[in-house]
Amino acid sequence: MKALLLAGTHEARQLAQALVSEPNLKLLVSLERPERGTQDFGWPVLIGGWDSEEGLVDRLEREEIEAIVDASHPFATNPSQLAVKAAKRLHLPHLRLARPPWTPADNDKWTFLNDETEAATVIPAGATVFIATGRGVLEAFKRLSAARLYCRVKDDPHEPFPFGNGTYLTDPGPYTVEGEQKLFEDLGVDWIVSRNSGGSGSWPKLAAARALGIPVAMVRRPPQPDCETVATIDEVMTWIRQRL
Description:
The protein has helices at residues 10-19, 53-62, 77-90, 177-187, 203-212, 233-243, and strands at 2-6, 26-31, 45-47, 67-70, 94-97, 110-113, 128-132, 148-153, 166-170, 191-195, 216-219, 229-230. The chain is α/β, with parallel strands linked by helices.
C-alpha cells in the first residue's frame, strides 16, 4: 500500500519513523512548507501542493496514493480540510491524527481567545508579552503597541521585527520547565500568548507560567475537519496495518 502522510508536527515525524519497519508500506511525506530536519522522516518528502483541492487530487492520482494519514498541525486547517475533500472524491481511506488540546488546572490563569487579535482586549498596556504563536501571525498583535513583545522562533527570521516594540528570540528547542522559568524571569514576562496546540513539546512554557503565576492568553483551536480521528500514534499504526 502506498500512503500519503500530511506532516508538520512532531507526531508526524515519530509516525513516519515508526512506519519504516512496515515491509508492505510505501510512504510519501507531504509538507506544506520546508521545516527543520526534513531528512529525518526516513521517507521521500514533497514540499507544497496544499493550495487547492484540485492540486491535491492531482498529486494523489499521480503518485497512486491508496490512503491518507493527516498528522498536520491542529491550526493548519486548510490542508486538513482539503485532505478530507480529496479523500472523498477518490474514495480513499483517510485518518486524522490530532493530539488532544491542553486543559487548564485550577491554579492556571488562562484567558481563552478566539484568535490572536483578541489579545489586545485582555493584555494591559505596558505589559511584557511572550508570544509563542510563531511569526506567521505577528500582524495580529499590532494593537499591542504599548506592550513589550518577544516572539520566539526556531530559525533566524532574516528580517526585522514588524513592530518597533518587539524582539525575536531564536531558539530551536527542546524546551524545559526550568529553562522556561528562567527565561520568563529574565525577560520580566507579564503575559504569555499561546495557541492550544497540545502535545508535550510546547507544554514546558505553560508549566513555567503556572509555577510563576503568569497569565496566559490561550487561542482556541479553529474548527477541526469532520473525519475519523485518533489521538495516538499506536492507533494510527493499527489503522494502517489493518489495510496492509
